[in-house]
Amino acid sequence: MAQVPQRFFDALAVRTWCTLALAALGRAREEIDAINVYPVADGDTGTNLYLTMESAAAAVEAVFAAYDTGGEPSLTDAVGAMAHGALIGARGNSGTILAQLLRGMAQVLTAREAAGETTREEPARVDGPGLRLALRRAADSARQAVAHPVEGTILTVAQAAADAADGTEGDCGAVARAAHTGARTALAATPGQLPALERAGVVDAGGRGLVTVLAALVEAFTGGQPEARDQAAAHSAACPPDAAEDEEAGGPAFEVIYLLEAEDAAVARLRGRLDALGDSLVVVGGDGLWNVHVHVDDAGAAVEAGVEAGRPYRIRITHFGQGDAHTAGAGRPHRERLERAVVAVVPGEGLAGLCAAAGATTVLARPGEPPASGELVEAVRRAHAREVVLLPNDAELRHTAAAAAEQARAEGVRVALIPTRSATQGIAALAVHAPERRFDEDVVAMTSAAGATRYAEVTVAEHRSWTTAGICQAGDVLGLIDGDVAVIGTDVTAAAGAVLDRMLAAGGELVTLVLGDRTPDSVAEHLASRVRASYLAVDTVVHHGGMPDALLLIGVE
User: Fold this and answer.
1) What does the alpha-carbon distance between residue 74 and residue 64 come to, in Å, rounded to a whole number?
2) What is the predicted pLDDT for the residue at 350?
3) What angle do CA 464, 468, 470 make, to 5 degrees?
4) Cα separation, 393 vs 427, whole angstroms
């Protein structure tokens, strides 16, 4: 959906930017992972940046949701949520630096409101000069957070973005475009600054991610993405990073990350201790809450240093090359891992019960609250299996599910993501699941079953809009086939019948009907009778899905 350009940096601009940046990182995640060779060639920079931005965007959405009854959050509310969300959700070296970049921007973007220079009639908003200052503070604060800054990394790209913005006059759109241009130019030069990048034939992965985030900033203020030629320098073909892996083989064995509640003085001492223990030290945050990232050989000593400084929590320890060594499960009784499990996202309690009865671990997606990748990772952990099949059951969750699968793989779980776009496709996949088969064979069978299932949804239009079937009014009944509006009507039963006829015109052997909370059984009874009367040898199965928004889901196999 096209975004409305933002003239000033206000609360809505923060929300728009976060939304666009998250989507862009989702699209670029695999490419960025593939070129990740520095400081460790562990192939997760794109995933870490996505997870960090996902946490920031979720925090901003939560602030806006609190104003659903009226009004709009202030710039301070929105940008503060963005910075805090990124801080608590920061992952990896680049994700931690991105969190500090956002925090540095927030300090400038909220300055007028903090100084009492705004009123209810004239809320806080930042123009081009203000954005220039924010980008400068972001670059400077990120560099200060890194114990030993290295050129040719995301820090260099951030500095170049700020430098380019400094020499630009104009509104936020002009400043953002200049910053993006400066960043992509600096990114193209990174192989000449870091031998590991030059040997692998790639640009810096963290810097590539920052260019993506800045391209989203341009889109937020101009309504369009930077020209394709402007993006070209941000891409580089990834070669096998053998040389980089060899170089890093003798480096620290563990990555340690944790949130820390501590006073500034204690954190200053912590920096010195961790710097002596390892490298890639980044400590970001402030006001009593910090995110600590370091690579060390003695993970226990790094955690102990945090305990001495304050209260560390959300401790995450990753052994490079050997998956994940979580401390979160310490003290829990051991239970034997299953060989294989299925994790499914479902839009209603009824479907959750149905899938659970079939042996799946479920994640409930509530209206307007799609699950974050962290929730999907937690579900994979709950499944406690060596092999997991992940069913997102929603086209909009493809990037989220992909990031969750990547993280679960880093923890040593073999994960197959089947890109199911509807709960009915998930039901079809789950119906042919056979744990006794070889993993690859099971995944192929489930993927084939899902792909052979056409899906539809009957719902109510929330507002007047243009659709592929014409103009609909608020309150109209819509029938969507494979995600596109195909039927507009006023009666649920009639619209559902029209949808079903269109789907069965292409053939089918089994119709699955999933009723929503507001849909009476009579609708399913009418449709089942229609199928029996008009389509020989086609069976019908009815489930109560418990969906609070959709009236009916239809699957045809």
Assistant:
1) 10
2) 86
3) 50
4) 9
